[in-house]
Write a structure and sequence with these properties.
By secondary structure, this protein is of the alpha/beta class. It folds into three domains: 77 residues, no CATH class; 118 residues, Aspartate Aminotransferase, domain 1, CATH 3.90.1150.180; 249 residues, Type I PLP-dependent aspartate aminotransferase-like (Major domain) (Aspartate Aminotransferase, domain 2). A seven-stranded mixed β-sheet has the order 4-12-11-10-9-5-8, with helices on both faces. Strands 13-14-17-16 form a four-stranded antiparallel β-sheet. Strand 2 and strand 3 form a beta hairpin. Helix 6 packs parallel to helix 14. It is globular. The mean pLDDT is 94. The structure holds pyridoxal-5'-phosphate. The site of pyridoxal-5'-phosphate has 16 residues, from helix 7 and strand 10.
Length: 473
Amino acid sequence: MDVTEKQQTLLRMLPGVDYILELSKEDPFFNNIPKSVLVRSIRSVVENLRTIIMDDKQDITDTKLSGSIILETVKNSVKQAMTSNLKRIVNATGVVVHTNLGRSILADDAVENLLTIASRYSNLEFDLSTGVRGSRYSIVEDILCEISGAEAAMVVNNNAGAVLLCLETLSNGKKVIVSRGELVEIGGSFRIPDVMAKSGGILKEVGTTNRTHRDDYENAIEHDTGLLLKVHTSNFSVVGFAADVSLEELVALGAKYQIPVMEDLGSGTFVDFSKYGLLKEPTVQESVASGADVVTFSGDKLLGGPQAGIIVGKKDILGRIKKNPITRALRIDKLTLAALEGTIRHYRNIDREMDSIPTLRMLTLPVGHIETKATELAKLLENTGDSRMSVKLMDLSSRPGGGSFPLLKLPSKGVGVTVRGVSVNFIEKKMRDNDIPIIGRIEEDRFIMDLRTILDDELPVIKKAFENMLRKV
Ligand SMILES: *Cc1c(COP(=O)(O)O)cnc(C)c1O
């Protein structure tokens, strides 16, 4: 590509990294900035300007290339580099278990436990009653058994790990029978057939997408069948002419041929949500009571705890799983254990403690409560007194998320905002750029915030974000 004369002039005017570095010494802002951060920021700003000049699409004036202007840009870039990349955000999407936004937020007890264990030594692998080495897996095993009715339990890093570990232990080199209707993809490239392949299990598909019968499983059983697997179709639903085989039937079949039965519940829950006016999701207790040998589920979906994979089931099978060396690679961290224990203790008394677990509280929040919050937010925003802003209360429907309740839409309330002279995309971006980013959505040409997932103390944060934005437009 030919470089024009104008481009050559601009390139010659573009200051070098060393020059800007010298210049930065005169500004006290840069005094305590680590040199590595400063140099990287300067390089990237100068490189960016060089690219703009070479592209020749934007009009660059020579003032833009002055040392002091460049230093201002460097300052912004340094500020960004010095703040944490993992930030708290306001979830205004209404999706309660939003995988991109960290799934579940923790119960107060879980957070308290987490802080204590994080800042102190603990009996993670030390048996306080005997004074000898213990196992980290014993920390939540009893309570998981108590709540689920299972004989044994263990926890690993996440449910994908739990599934992999169980398949590797039970099916390595053998056939695993699964219904075609349950070969699910969870998202983020977790697909049951792929995990199966990695585990060494050989997938034996039976039935059709919409209908699978007991005979399909039975006819597929051979001498080298290692496992019957049922997967909860978390994030979709087959409706219409559909049939599947219940876990009880699979367990009976497994007993007849002495083949273990596993169920991957995905978003496992101990709560019967139909009691709270939601649709029914299968509970862990029911799967255990059906006689499944092993049941796996996530810690941070409907359970409302930290990221973890929970495995409950029969003692002998769990014993084999615990001995698998892969366990070590999927080992649960002590911070997770602390948060998990703080969460699951609530399940002993869950009917009274639903509200202690934010995920459960948000899922069952009465629409009247949401409306009160929405009205409050609308008032706060109107009080900014900017006549360009229009604030509207809106009927919305929120989604549970987390690969659960695929068909359920929860009636909710929200606030929609427009600002005269400003595009809704601009509002959305400004909210996303806020120091505490506010993640909403655009609908009907308004910036929409669903109050189901917004915490009370976040209302002033939203107000301030709008005030800051209005000051600048
Ligand atoms: C979500 C899900 C998984 C994966 O669980 P993670 O906790 O994300 O690792 C596995 N199986 C099913 C059916 C799921 O819904």
